[in-house]
Amino acid sequence: MSIHLLTNTERVIQSNAPQTPLIGDHIRGLKNIYAAIILLIAAIGCIYLAKISFFAHAGISALILAIILGILYSHTLHPKLTQSWSPSIQWSSKYLLRAGIILYGVRVNVGQILDLGINTVLIDIGVVALTLTIGTWIGVKWLKLDRHTALLVSAGSAICGAAAVMAMESTLKSAPHKTCIAVGTVVLFGTAAMFGLPLWLHWIGTTELQSGIITGASVHEVAQVVVAGNQISSYAGNLAVVVKMTRVLLLVPTLTIISMLENRHNRKNNQTNLPSKASIPWFAVGFIAVILLNSSGIISHEMANTLYYIDIGLLTAAMAGIGIETHFSKIKSAGFKPIILAAILAIGLLLGVTGITLLI
Q1: In this structure, is the dihedral angle defined by the CA atoms of residues 185, 190, 191 and 193, taken in order, positive or negative?
Q2: What's the CA angle centered on 248, arms 241 and 163, to 5 degrees?
Q3: How confident is the model at residue 212, as a pLDDT?
Q4: What integer pLDDT is reported at residue 24 of this predicted model?
Q5: Spatial contact of 161 and 143, defined as CB atoms under 8 Å apart
């Protein structure tokens, strides 16, 4: 029996030898898990930062802080420390986002929405349909934006701000920097509406009922709706949140229709490497399932609160990952056109919803 001792040259050759698929998959799986854990830890930090009075009063949520800090990290430490982890960060962001969209359904109660009456529900349906349609048309035809950027900016205005942008990004499979551009417009004009809308409603002399409907149907983020509504009154604030939840509920049919239209667009342009069959995104089905469970009373109030905070953590972690994979050069290339589009949509929403609400 002989023992063969490896020479230094042989050790180097073996260490540089290609890994077997099984070992490679195992390492990638571990890196994906580690990346998800790191993003979740970063999310916890952003959630605590968002509770600081300065950010809380300004209506800057943990999601917004996560994307800002993610972009800053992307341009400082990421190239030196974690560049090789980019595929794992992208993978983790994608699945954390989809899990977050599913649990977002815990915020919606169908019974409360039905109590609003048909007129208010129709206003929300009109807001979502017209904002997406007109916004995409203006963005592509007038401003010469690419379709994905126009859709993402329009979705942020039409449905539920950053969460809608992220859900749409997952359906379109668009580039991370386009998501950041759209989220930026949500921050800018959602914050402006949060502080300016109560002054506008006071100036035109709306009732608490009208103020709640207008706020819920026109402001971008749920958190921004809460701040804006409660500046008017607690009744207007509570009503505005329920009206807003109706727009959130419309996320699933919107994603389904967009998936079908995207599929048609891909076939028309002979993009055969993309999926040829449109379907309802699986995370959208999960979103509806959670809404039904929450509305049926199966999910207790305490459990709903727990799931709510878990959901914030998941979405914040996904947003941090998107920020890390975003570069200023790509955002800069879009110029001011997305901001112009978002401004048109914000003004259109304000005037349109106010006019319709005063007429009914």
Answers
A1: positive
A2: 105
A3: 94
A4: 53
A5: no
State the SS3 of the chain: CCCCCCCHHHHHHHHCCCCCHHHHHHHHHHHHHHHHHHHHHHHHHHHHHHCCHHHHHHCCCHHHHHHHHHHHHHCCCHHHHCHHHHHHHHHHHHHHHHHHHHHHHHHCCHHHHHCCCHHHHHHHHHHHHHHHHHHHHHHHHHCCCCHHHHHHHHHHHHCCCHHHHHHHHHHHCCCHHHHHHHHHHHHHHHHHHHHHHHHHHHHHCCCHHHHHHHHHHHCCCHHHHHHHHHHHCHHHHHHHHHHHHHHHHCHHHHHHHHHHHHHHHHHHCCCCCCCCCCCCCHHHHHHHHHHHHHHHCCCCHHHHHHHHHHHHHHHHHHHHHHHHCCCHHHHHHHCCHHHHHHHHHHHHHHHHHHHHHHHC
CB distance 46 to 316 below 8 Å: yes
- The rounded average pLDDT for each run of 10 residues, N- to C-terminus, in the chain (360 residues) is 44 45 61 87 93 81 85 80 76 85 87 86 93 96 94 93 86 86 87 89 93 93 83 89 89 89 78 52 84 90 92 90 76 83 95 92
- For residue 319, the model assigns a pLDDT of 84
* Token pair in block for residue 34: 């580690």
CA distances from 111 to 108, 117, 236, 291, 292 (A): 9, 11, 18, 11, 10
- In Å, how far from its chain's centre is CA 282? 16
Give the integer Cα–Cα distance in Å for 226 and 352: 21
Domain spans in the chain, listed from the N-terminal domain onward: 27-359
